[in-house]
Amino acid sequence: MRLGIRLKILLTFVACFGLMAVISLNLLRSSLNKSYDEIERRDLTSHMNRVVQSIEAGLSHLSNLTRDWAVWTEMYNYALKPNAAWAKDNIGTHAMEPADLSLVMVFDGKGKLILQTTRGQGGGRLNLPNLQASAYPDFLKKKRDAPGCGLMQTDVGLMMTCWANIKRSDASGDFVGTVVMGRQLDRQMVVKLSEQIRMPFEFHAKQTLPAGLTRWPGVQSSRSLGAGDFWTFHEENMYHLAYPLQDMLKNNVGLVTFDVSRDVHEEGEKLYGQVSRQWVWMALVMVLLMAIALHFLLVRRLRRFEKQLVTLTEESSWQSRIDVQGSDELGVLSSNVNTLLGMIESDVSKLEILSLTDTLTGLPNRRAFDARLALEYARQQRNKTPLAMLMIDIDHFKKYNDHYGHPAGDAALKATADVLKVAVCRSSDLAARIGGEEFAVLMPETPLQDALKIANRIRSVMKGRDLPHEASPVASYMTFSIGVAVVGDETPESFVNRVDQALYQAKNTGRDRAFCDES
Asked: Does position 82 have pLDDT exceeding 80, yes or no?
């Protein structure tokens, strides 16, 4: 299928614009993804900070309460001299309830546990059989330098735990012991914290992270609850975050998890989709506008140029001129073509003056034959009709001249011309003398088999003339060798050469015959 110049230009434009669009959209997507990833990262870090800070706020509140109890003068006296009745009345389960405490422990100055009181959510006691056997009591005994807070793993789950050194209210007196307070980090506590920060999260009492998570290191500073790293996993529209919790001994004791929708990512995808659609519409509009501009500025004028040129060529009206208006490149081309047409017209006039006829035989000469061949070849290329040629040579003509003399040779050439005039009778055919004893016949719209019949007719008519040729080793009368061929996908020169080769084949295979080149 032949592509017109308009379609080629449009396809080139579409390809270039499409390539530019692909590159630009990929750069845009990369830039958007990078920007929105940074925004998401900041938002997720902020969310995680809020979650962790909510737990730390609970620890801070518990730390204040612990320090208040630690500087209670009666608590100072109790640490020096334990009194069960005082403890029951002042730091028993009824005193723990308003402060929402789950555990109270008091150690004396030597690190001996002198009180451990627990309280569950229903008001009963918690069963903590393994607490004293764990490493936490030894850790707390050594914390005499400053108050602190952290998580503690117990039989009933994690507890937010704070400790402080017992002192008088005026901060006087020696070190006499440590008070420890714990608040159970249970489901009720998690719900309460979630409501405070207006962000639901989950607490999981396990130490291992789920598979497939990506670590975000150093997002937060190291805290009492963990190392400051958290882990993420995201789906198309949702981020899943996990923060490993550490106890006061820096052991992993649980996970805080929550989910955040990827609103920023979705907005980025919407923006990318809008930009992509705008590119498509812009491309369609530009292609349409370019098609209109190409039609009026180039294609319509080229078609007019082509139509005039085809008409001029078909009619061989070299005196005509191309009429394409404009001062652009196409107008300049039209002017140059008209200059060329003027030169052609001048050359044609000169050729018409020249003799196109062979003076001896009366047949067209080589110049006329070549001109007609060019014309018929051009017509054949347009119409795709068969064009046949015969190349004829008098067998052993030199011996004929040597034997009978040149005047007899001239007479033989005239006789050959007469034979061609008789045998080639169509007005569209052209018989010409193209060399000394060589003749050619050009036959438009003639297939190979018909051309072969005409070649054999020429030989038959010549045989009927019975022109003596005693010097010929082929026959006692004058004979012809004829090459026959039909033009193919080739140049006129190649066509003539192929017919000439067929003539040589006729000579090489014994003469007095016609040889067809069927390639």
From this structure: yes
Q: Structure tokens of 272?
A: 């990318």
| Domain contains 314 | no
Q: Are residues 229 and 378 in the same domain?
A: no
User: pLDDT tens digits, residue range 299-344?
Assistant: 777 777 778 777 777 777 767 777 777 777 777 777 787 778 777 7
Same domain, 59 and 200: yes
Q: Which of 246, 275, 290 is the last residue of a domain?
A: 290
Residue pair 233/259 in contact (Cβ under 8 Å)? The answer is no
Helix axes 406-423, 397-404, angle to 10 degrees: 130
Same domain membership, residue 193 and residue 45 = yes
Global pTM? 0.49
Question: Phi-psi category of 147—alpha, beta or left, where left has phi over 0 and alpha has psi -120 to 50?
Answer: beta
What is the dihedral sign for C-alpha 79, 85, 90, 93? positive
Joined tokens for residue 128: 């903590």
User: Of 290, 312, 333, which one is at a domain's C-terminal end?
Assistant: 290
If asked whether residues 270 and 369 sit together in one domain, one would say no
The CATH number assigned to the domain holding 462 equals: 3.30.70.270
- Positions annotated as catalytic residues are 437
- In 321-409 the beta strands, taken as DSSP E runs, fall at 387-394
Burial group, residue 344, by CB count within 10 angstroms (0-12, 13-18, 19+): middle
CA trace torsion 53, 55, 60, 65 (10° rounding): 160
Q: What b-and-e string marks burial along 458-472, b requiring 16 or more CB atoms within 10 Å of the CB?
A: bbebbbeeebebeeb
In-domain check, residue 412: yes
Cα(438)–Cα(429) distance, integer angstroms: 17
Using N-to-C axis directions, what is the helix angle for 5-70 and 263-294, rounded to 10°? 170
Whether residue 335 is contained in a domain is answered as no
Q: Indicate the number of domains in the chain.
A: 2
Within 8 A by CB and 6+ apart from 491, the residues are: none
**Domain interval for residue 223:** 1-290
